[in-house]
From TrEMBL:
Pathway: Glycan metabolism
Compartment annotation: Membrane
PANTHER family: O-FUCOSYLTRANSFERASE 1, OS02G0726500 PROTEIN-RELATED
Tagged with keyword Kinase: no
CDD domains named among the record's database cross-references: O-FucT_plant
Keywords assigned: Carbohydrate metabolism, Fucose metabolism, Glycoprotein, Glycosyltransferase, Membrane, Signal-anchor, Transferase, Transmembrane, Transmembrane helix
Entry GO CC: endosome; membrane; trans-Golgi network
Polar residues biased stretches: 454-469
GO biological process: fucose metabolic process
Keyword Cell membrane: no
Protein name according to UniProt: O-fucosyltransferase family protein
Length: 484
């Protein structure tokens, strides 16, 4: 990689933060209280959406169980409508590890118990509730808890975005991180396959991963149609009408404020301006790019060394173990383990947001996050012929150097807690305030049961989960389209 000096600079800019801050949620603070001996009942949840939306829902389910002192029944995962995948929790995650890791926080059982009624043995029936979107803690301590005590079991469905992210309770937020980065570990065969792919990629040097979010659902959601043919626009409008809230969206206005996903060519131009050349090895985490090769060709001409999990490994083992959500899990892990990660659209993208949070927690691993709003007028000037290549690249670099490359930063809405758990889930190695200092027995290693060299080393092996184009549900008619 000719831009090796830039790579080292970006790594140092991020990894130096790990000398000051450490992820610390796998150790307990002095105010941590174990769950009471007696439970108030059983909590069932149905986690809808794609892989990463389900992952955040699992974190919220554990927290909801903690809040209500409920026994959590292993979360149910929707058979995803796009992947047609019914793997369930047991097919993706290490169940024993999940239960053991959380034993000091909540009780977890694999199924709701059976009871005897009228001389017959049957499973306890759970009272069904639909939680409000982003429900406050008070909803769980009143409405939900009352029904739990009344019926002995409740079933919350659907359970996506059903617990507020911003909670003024550090221990609750730390529990979310403990679930996300310690308890949720993929099954061994997923981890092994991901490491196999990473080893092959890294055998030729450093590599970058890119989440290229240029697919029908995201383009329809964003309302970015005009660059496509009339037939393609017809498909996008039809998809939007069927899946998203009706709203008049004007492409030129949307693009001018950075609301459109970056095209593959724009991604390539950003990387070129930053000094990456055609020797850069790139792993693409993407599904079916809308518009096909017509949009990929300019990017491929700039960066010919493109790979995905299918091109890196053509074995039957990979084909058999990357079907449905398992393929998403492998993609996510490869992106987590890459030297640099670049999301091209980190608005309502559960995959990109969760991965950014995972890399931040895993030692402030390097990320390139394009500021689409600031870059949009620069691209428009270039397309209108009002900016030469040299001036264009200088302008792009000026914008990019102001962005965060994976280090700690204050979380400002609409940034998600799952994208940036700093500072709740971190401690300081040297802090003037004793409450901010790391515990003496802080466990620096990131994910239990994983291969871990040095946590702060960007080349170390760490656990991961997944990507995909469709593995994440975007806001639909049933969701609040807060990004529109």
């Amino acid at each position: 990689m000719a831009s090796y000096v830039l790579l080292i600079y970006l790594q140092l800019a991020s990894s130096s933060c790990s000398l000051i801050f450490l992820s610390t949620v796998n150790s307990y603070s002095l105010i941590h209280v174990a769950p009471p001996t007696e439970s108030n009942g059983y909590l069932r949840v149905r986690c809808n959406g794609g892989l990463n939306q389900q992952r955040t829902a699992i974190c919220n389910a554990v927290l909801a169980a903690r809040i209500m002192n409920a026994t959590l029944v292993l979360p149910e995962l929707d058979a995803n409508s796009y992947w047609h995948d019914d793997s369930g929790f047991e097919g993706l995650y290490d169940v024993d590890h999940f239960i053991k890791t959380l034993q000091n926080d909540v009780r977890v059982v694999q199924s709701i118990p059976e009871i005897e009624k009228n001389g017959k043995i049957k499973k306890m029936k759970a009272f069904q509730l639909r939680p409000p979107r982003d429900a406050p803690i008070s909803w769980y301590t009143t409405t939900a808890l009352e029904k739990l005590k009344e019926h002995g079991a409740i079933y919350l469905t659907p359970f996506s975005h059903r617990l507020a992210e911003e909670i003024n309770h550090p221990e609750y937020q730390r529990l979310r991180c403990r679930v996300n980065y310690h308890a949720l570990v993929f099954k061994p065969h997923i981890i092994e396959l991901s490491h196999k792919i990473v080893d092959k990629l890294r055998s030729q040097g450093h590599f970058m991963s890119i989440h290229l979010r240029f697919e029908m659902d995201m383009l329809s959601f964003a309302g970015c149609f005009d660059i496509f043919s009339p037939e393609e626009q017809k498909k996008l409008r039809k998809y939007r009408k069927e899946n998203f809230t009706e709203k008049k969206l004007i492409y030129s206005e949307r693009r001018a404020i950075g609301k459109c996903p970056l095209t593959p060519e724009e991604v390539g131009l950003i990387l070129r301006a930053m000094g990456f050349d055609n020797s850069t090895r790139i792993y693409l985490a993407a599904g079916d790019l809308f518009g096909g090769e017509r949009f990929m060709k300019p990017f491929r001409s700039m960066f010919p060394m493109l790979e995905n999990h299918s091109s890196v490994d053509t074995s039957n083992e990979l084909k058999e173990n990357t079907q449905g959500l398992m393929g998403s899990a492998v993609d996510y892990m490869v992106c987590l383990l890459s030297d640099i990660f670049m999301p091209t659209y980190d608005g309502p993208s559960n995959f990109a947001n969760n991965l950014l949070g995972h890399r931040l927690y895993s030692g402030f691993l390097t990320a390139i996050r394009p500021d689409r709003k600031s870059l949009a007028p620069i691209f428009i000037e270039r397309e209108n012929g009002r900016m030469r290549t040299a001036s264009f690249e200088v302008a792009v670099r000026r914008v990019m150097l102001k962005t965060n490359f994976g280090g700690p930063h204050k979380r400002i809405p609409p940034e998600s807690f799952y994208t940036n758990s700093w500072s709740e889930c971190f401690c300081q190695t040297s802090a003037s305030n004793p409450g901010d200092r790391c515990p003496d027995d802080n466990l620096v290693s990131n994910l239990d049961g994983m291969e871990q060299d040095s946590l702060g080393n960007i080349t170390s092996k760490q656990p991961n989960d997944s990507l995909s184009t469709k593995n994440d549900d975007e806001p639909s008619k049933n969701d609040d389209p807060k990004y529109l």
